[in-house]
Amino acid sequence: MPTGRTLMIHPPYVHDNYLAQGTPFVTDRQPFLPVAPLYAAELLELHGFAETRLFDCQLHDLRDASDVAGYDSYGISVMGAQNITPAYHVFRYLAERVDSGRIHVGGQGIEKLSEEEFQRVFPGGHKTDRQALAGLPGAMDVDLERQVAKLSDADLRVYLANEMTLPFSQGCLFGCSFCGAQIQRRESFFDVPTHLDLHCRLAKRFGVSSIDLYCTSLDFFQQALPGGDIARLTRLLEGVIELRERHGLDIGLRALTRADSYNAAMKSEQIRDLTAGAGFSRFGFGADGAASADVVRAMRKHADGLRSELLRAFEHMEANRFVPEILYVFGIPEDTRDTLAETRELCGLLLETFPNSEYRGFPAKNEIPGNSNWNRRGWQGSAAHTRLLDEPDLFLNLGFETLANEISHPDPDKRLMVNRFAVDMSHLAHELGRVGSYLTVPVADEGVEIMDDPTMSRYREIVANYAPDLAPGLRPDNLVAQRTELNSAIPKDT
Ligand code: SF4
Fold first, then answer.
1. Contact at 8 Å (CB) between 450 and 480?
2. Which of 47, 107, 361, 369 has the fewest CB atoms within 10 Å of its CB?
3. DSSP single-letter state for residue 446
4. How much distance in Å is there from the Cα of 358 to the middle of ligand 1?
5. Which atom number of ligand 1 is nearest to the Cα of residue 301?
């Protein structure tokens, strides 16, 4: 655990990683209030371990922090697998200035790395066990007010202008094989009214009349499934409405849900009305595998009726003017040309049938630290696994929005096929103007093929929306060389 005066560092966005690129600092295009390091900081202070200060590399250049070597400890937060890359560069920057034994790295992205794996990427550093922090008394009831009070007004104004995170709940009963979240455990709830009240008071202090919040729940309506406590969710929604009215604020909320949970919850008109009244306007549905019963089983989703559940949920969403987001992971090892074609057909059908829906599709990353595939025998010690640990820049390739690449899809034919369907679906969503996910370019060695010529011609049309000067000159053999510029121009996935 970090102790003493501790600098908690939120690394830069993986595609604007100025520390890796040695480029001038540019403020992140969509910076968000980094709740995870603030949460850890509050727990550390509450229990007398450390006095903390946040350094947010989205808003500030770490190279300009003159006092950076003067802390007793450092905490680097790693949200997801691809964030290991910028965290590694922050670690290297610090380790050139302070003893690496003072540097602690924590967060969902790295917590399931073995100690040996961790030491290969962060030599001499400490892996902070989030469970040790989460196991401290009062961990779910933390109030972030004291940490937020340390932030500058200028930074707070920036965070308020962007979507912020509302700690709502954590944990999911299911155990999908590709999922690196906190799975196979009962949902537990944060102190939602306290967090929401803090966001509302901040908004009022800075004269902001509306705020957008992303709820942390993995499956927002899971309490509606058999054995759940729907009364708990009902009370939380009522509490959101009460705060919204008390502060006179326009609050926009979104969350993720399974289709079966959503349908179970929406049997109750009271829940539907409370959901709308609280300010929820959109939900992301995990549609992965819905096109093929074999694929859904391979993903261990426990959702054999997923396709009909999805259609029911989308019809209900349309009738109630909610926006359904189609979250789709495709290109797992069990996928074939036929299942990918079925996936393409289903996504197209959903988008064209439900004009309020939005597409968020992702080429699968079958092995990520923390999911159940990461420890399988065929992956541990494989060439791709070894390369990741030897060249941590390659963790960028595990980003959910990154095109299939030599780490995620070592077989070139499969890689090209997955990207053909990924680009084709994204192209359709762009044509319809309903796209919420963007395909970024992976790190790759010279000569490694990412896409073929027909795929490239469609990808150029997508990229022309964001980088009109770069798009015409893109070819399969020069795509990777333009990674940094392209990824900086492609919108951020949120
Ligand atoms: S993908 Fe969704 S339903 Fe599956 S384990 Fe993860 S959070 Fe739960």
1. yes
2. 47
3. T
4. 20
5. 4
